[in-house]
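>> Question from a student workshop board

For tomorrow's exercise we were told to take the sequence and the ligand below, predict the bound structure, and bring the output to class. My setup keeps failing. Could a helper post the expected result so I can at least see what it should look like? The ligand is adenosine-5'-triphosphate.
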Amino acid sequence: MAPHERFPDEAQPTKIAYVNGEPRTLHLRKTHLVVNPGVDEAREYTFDQDVITLGTLEDNDIPLDDDTVSREHCRIVQDGPHTLIIDQGSTNGTYVNGVQVREAYLAPGSVLGVGNTQIRFNPVDEQVPITPSTSERLGDIVGKSVKMREIFGIIEKIAPTGATVIIEGETGTGKEVVARTIHQLSARKDQPFTVFDCGAVPANLIESELFGHEKGSFTGAVMTRKGLFEMAEGGTIFLDELGELSLDLQPKLLRVLEQREVRRVGSNKPIPVNVRVIAATNRSLAEEVDAGRFREDLFYRLSVVRLNLPPLRERIEDIPLLTRHFLSQLGFNRDHEGNHKVKTISREALDVLTDYDWPGNVRELVNIIERGCSFARGDCITCEELPGYVTGDEDGGLMLTPGRRDSDRSDMADLPRRSELNDMPFKRAKEEWIASFEKDYIATLLARHSGNISSASREADIDRKYFRKLMYKHDIDIDEI
Ligand SMILES: Nc1ncnc2c1ncn2[C@@H]1O[C@H](COP(=O)(O)OP(=O)(O)OP(=O)(O)O)[C@@H](O)[C@H]1O
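>> Workshop helper replied:
Here is what the output should look like for this input. Compare the format with yours to find the bug.
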């Protein structure tokens, strides 16, 4: 058994069941609690979250109006396939079937004693069939391929639950747009959606960014500051590039997920937080666990629902729809009066786009459409406005960025020679050409901006995250620059 299979899949309470690689059923573990069963005014609750808090304070999930109950009396926690009750140092204690406990596993039908209040516990396993959605759009996501419509089907079901979600997929496949849509379709939609890129912040600052710090807790901490978890209260936090989170910070994130509280750097005081976590990674976290770079318990805790976004090359039928979506929705295709500059794309240009390999996925498609809009002479993008590395036309391939033409070649001394490329198979030549162009372009821009990634990516007019990814891909070390 691989280390990350400590909780085998069948035992996971909330999970997606696959048949022949296709998602078929969503199992949703819910907790059903009846407060004071057997009396007229019994109250019933059903929860789909991992932690349920009980006590007299109003912000508990089950607020209890009972003098014998403490303010934060106890909590019920999902522990893998099991459910655990944990007393929080209450004055009058927590009981399971009449026996006082500090921590105990619950069985279906267990009766909990919390002060004078009795609560009956019952887990419910709801099974919902997953069928591809009939819609070609969900929130901000568009797609007509079966794979994307299956993902829509899953999102529709899991978005309203509190379930933690992990989204896996190559760079630029739409992980953030999926996370944002899950948030929009949840009860948290009016609360903040906060994005944190674990790979973009220096390791020594991540803890204070996420959890906050007390004044004087480290050099430079001139005042007390809330972390993102506190600021995202009631909303969703999207942890991008989670695979980059260092091993020493992983237990701290686990604590937030298990106990729903944070401790600021320099303080021992726990601060309760109510935030849904959605994480994304373009590495396989299961492989990271096997390699010892990612904690198995955190992986398990996070992967309540795992979504795998397919690369664009595996869903080329989405390309025409995505292209039309970008032409109609994105700001780059509007003139100063707000009208669309380009109305359409030619059949031939669409054919070229569907034949291309898409290493940069949907983000690369966005960039190519944007470029097409700025070059288009009329109201239609034709093959002439597509970059040469996409059309396979080498002369066009020299004009890789708007305004940069063959005559600029002197800047590109490191690019492979045309004669060398001509001796290679087409696919390899194309890859070599793009790789050396990207490396040269990124390094040159970084040098011009003295290593400042934000201003270099602004000049390149590409996303900072994508810029950083290209640096990583080509091993460009900022210190050497
Ligand atoms: N299915 C989709 N429908 C509409 N827009 C999409 C879709 N997929 C991606 N996009 C757009 O493509 C761009 C890249 O998507 P996004 O940033 O969500 O990718 P990502 O997987 O999070 O990237 P990274 O791995 O770099 O963090 C964004 O402009 C996004 O709006």
